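Q: I have 441 residues here and want to know how they pack in 3D. Can you give me a structure?
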Amino acid sequence: VADLWLVYSKPVPANGRELWTLFLQCSCITAVIGGLFYNWMFASLEYSWHLSVAMAVSFSLLLLLTLFLVHPARCVFSMIMPTLGTKQGRKLLLSTCTMIVVVNILPNIISNIKTILEVIQCICKNSSESLLNSTALLGTAAWEFGDAIQETSNSINIHRPMNGHFQFSLLKNSSLIYQQMHLAGEKIGMDFLAVEVLVKDSVRVGNKLVAGFSVLYLCFESTWYLKNYLTNLRFDNFYITKKLERLTVDRKAAHLLVGPSKNILRPTGMKLSREEVMLCLVQAMLLTVALMLMLVVVAMDHFAFRVADTAEKKASQFSMVPVTLNIKYSVSAGAKIGILSSLLEFLGLPSKELPLQDFKGSYRHYLIFSSAHCRISRPTPPNPSVLLAVGLLFCILYATVFLQTYAHRLCRKIAGSFFESWEEKRALYLYKKLSRKHKEG
């Protein structure tokens, strides 16, 4: 492995054997990266398969030529790998989590909301139909009550009304109401579908933009690091490297590296500086905010399912509500109509008592709120595999927060292995800096 890395990090191969070894290394790397690039474009970014294949093949060929011919490009590409464990890698993982939530959880929430609306629509339809049918009860009661009044009016010979019945205009055809309710339900469904499509399309576009920006920024960040490494001796130069240890031993100044120091660290050690710890805490807090937003969406999914499941079960358990109409009309046996009696006396006719009778009627009807003919879709429970995938991704994200420092140190080591002569200059600069501080102390 050390020999292969030595061939890979050399500016120019020493012989034909190293040249073929370098070509095989670059070919294997580009084959693996090309496969991952295709899977990323097709599965995560949801591009078409033929576009994904074309982009993956073109990217692989370009990457092969670049890695094989350009030595600094190999260094930049090698530093991109550990950089994936830093904030740019977290951006890619966060975009993947967002895509998983949008594609799987949001449609589930909308589906359960549709179930709730179907339950409400079923209740409204059946209750309105039952209420319309109850108007027939009023018509029957009014007709019978009119019969009783008609019998009373028939006993008067002077004036007889044409008809003593109450006239009700009943709505016999309820198709108009059903049609309006159906149109309202269809409109609500179309509105929900439009919102779902809009959210999915927006997140897809945003995810593609974030992914493309993250990949470009990965290349930029690695290039920026290499540029500063090669042009600034003070940049990221506070590690106890093997070249620095060898230099202090040769100059009999090993005491410079003995004892605790807050300014220099060993790149292979687990110790973190104060700045590195604060950076990890800030990144962890930002990641926690994103996690809380994801948990809100997951909680909404569970809440929508519980409400839809409860509504669907309770709707089938609604009992019929009895409605009773009682009509009671009572008149004393010796009652008289005052105006008619005065008229009879004025005409010199004897007054006549009206044989009014009591009227009592009871009418029963049942209001129905649910029916077996209602088309209510079953609520969809949350997918546990989606929650597991999101949970595992966030575990990886939290791990990358604390691995970011060590990934940064690995980039430093990669750059030093590609440019050994410059690494010696950096070690000499740090040695002089430590010597100067030791003399001043």
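Q: Anything worth noting?
A: The longest strand covers residues 321-329. Residues 11 and 71 are 5 Å apart (CA to CA).
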